[in-house]
Amino acid sequence: MDYRLNNEALIACCISPLIERRSLTVAQITLVLTILLNDSIRHIILTTPRIVIDNKKLNKISLSYQELLPYIMNSLVLLIQSGCIIIEQDAIKKLPLNSHLSEVIEDRSVGRLRDILNDMEAVLDRICSYEISTLYKELNISL
User: Fold this and answer.
1) In degrees, to the nearest 5, what angle opens at C-alpha 16 toward C-alphas 13 and 18?
2) pLDDT band for position 77 (50/70/90)?
3) Scanning 15, 68, 122, 126, which has the fewest C-beta atoms within 10 Å of its C-beta?
């Protein structure tokens, strides 16, 4: 399935399971999605004991963040316009009518999307254990 998905579709398929697992802000979800969508960065984050990474790898994270940010924002806008999610009090929330989406996505995912969904909980645990401003600073992410 996922070899046919464009960037926005792949990201949209990740957003629903993400916000079902945790209450996330836009700043958190953009960082989590950047890590999840880049296989090498995801591997670095999951295998590094602390989120302190050498400068060469830090630049890779920052560049990937800047490249993926427009796609992530487009996906969020598409999901808001289609009535799937809302952003309320700095948190992204799924509308009750769409509560089944995560289950459908997880049941039908294969390949790269399946790998991303399998690593999602571990990445969320790592990211959500830090203050988001600290993470942006530690990972050298600037806009």
Assistant:
1) 105
2) very high
3) 122
- How far apart CA 93 and CA 34 sit, in angstroms, is 19
3-state secondary structure of 5: coil
CA neighbor of 117 nearest in space, from 40, 17, 42: 17
Alpha-carbon distances, residue 3 vs 31, 109, 112, 121, 142 (angstroms)? 23, 11, 8, 23, 30
Angle at 129 between CA 126 and CA 135, to 5 degrees: 80
**Tens digit of pLDDT for each residue in 84-96?**
888 888 888 877 7
